[in-house]
Design brief:
19 strands; extended; 561 residues
Length: 561
Amino acid sequence: MEELNFEKLLPSEPTEKEKKIIAKEFLTADAVVYRAGVYINPLSGIGEKMCKCTCSACGETFLLDRVETDGCHRYSRSNFGCLVSREAMHSGSAAICPECGKKVDFIHVSDFGAYPNYYINNEKILTLRIVKNCLALIFWLCSRSVNKDGIAFNEYTPYETYVFAGKKCKRFVGYEKRGMYYYRVIPLGYWEKRSRSEDCIGKGFSSAVVPDKKILNGTPFENCRLNKYLNDAKDDAFPVTYMKLWQKHKTVEGLIDTGASILMSSFFERNASPASYSYNNTEFRYSSRVTGIDFKQTKPHKMLGLSRPEYAEVIKREYDSPDLLRYQKLKSFGLTFDDAEQIGFFDRELIEISKYGVNVKTVVNYLRKLQSKEKNKATLGSYAGMLRDYYKICDKLNISVDKDTFFPKDLKKEHDRLVKEDRRREKEKEREKDAEKSKRISERAKILSTLVSSNGVLMIRPAASVDELKNEGKCLHHCVATYAESVASGETDIFFVRKVSEPDKPFYTLELDEKNCTVKQNRGKGNCARTPEVRAFEEQWLEFVKQNIKKIRNRKVAANG
């Protein structure tokens, strides 16, 4: 495989048979190209403002009444539209061609811009090819365009190819991306090798497949089940990822044979990672590293950790990987498939509940009884979440979780009662903490009282309590209340700047760096900057601080013993 020059061996376009299938099944769009002008109305014989239209589906050219539109529809450059069946159609809208009856897009010639053609249909189509006994998954960029004369044509250019041989996979591309953030895909018209072979095609393109059931016969890939996987998974298929997995684990054939194609795709998507964080990047990368399946086993049900009847039920219910993984966790508690589906995504809550020593099966029966009593039935999972929270609050409030408290008769009422009690205790703890902080802040304020000052218009004093800090932050819409612990511990000093005429009304809040005798910050309402008057007062006060800082430090030493 390494020695073969696949850039030359790979086909440059689909076969004629493939083109016919692609054109018939995927490139079916058509358009009416119109241009506004003055034309002779065949009914009146008088020159009128009309639209000359050509349909790419039937090839007919005809005139329609021209109408003004509000412009800029679907990125259209045109302010003119056509009157079709008494309805104004702007450029970019779809309507029925009055000549052939096919639904087509109406496109004004101005929307072509500087380009001679206009894309009306784009698809990425997968074809299979055997090249030198290697399997090539070839994706073509197939497009249907129309020119300004209303003539449609199809184009087939190389997009991506993945070549498989043995346990190796090589990737080739037929395009390049230009642009740093909002890139454009520019077709090259030939194949180039890429060092990485991640599946960048991903979900959604695999339904556009040109089938060829016999192409793998007599090749090393005869039993890979790729065709069956594509047929069963359809839009959810990841053909490249599947083949990379098959190269490592041939036992995946058994999963496909027994109807697990959609389940496998779900595992592929679960292990996917975004190709980039760019908002305009919709591609994903996939690899053959699939977690959650034991490929050391040879039988499909054992690969998924299930019994034969369980595996049959998983296939019947069309489970995806989250459904399967949830059931695998819950079945150890004796729960059935129906139980797992009713619990839904609250399986974690049940697992947490089990840690309290209560039988999970009994819990589910208890939750069902609660659900049956409710008029507006919530999901079984929501009750599980409420019960989990009830147990947690019991733990927090030192209420024993035992046979007497496992299953309250009215779970919601008891849950809400404990939530209220928990909040009451939390508020009580907060009040106690605030009282203790306020005591320390008050002691700090006495030490800092030497720095109280006024110039007759403005005054400044230290914060004296937690409540003062909260009120300051509330009135001035800033976060000084969060400094309470730092003030209480002496890490920083907060002072209130007030107008002498309004000594109790918050005005500016100042943080002092006592060590360096500098102001860290001084903010007013909404964290606004200080006014010239406040700045002048602050500078004057700082000189006063420098003169009295020794007294503050001596008081601190005395207070600390």
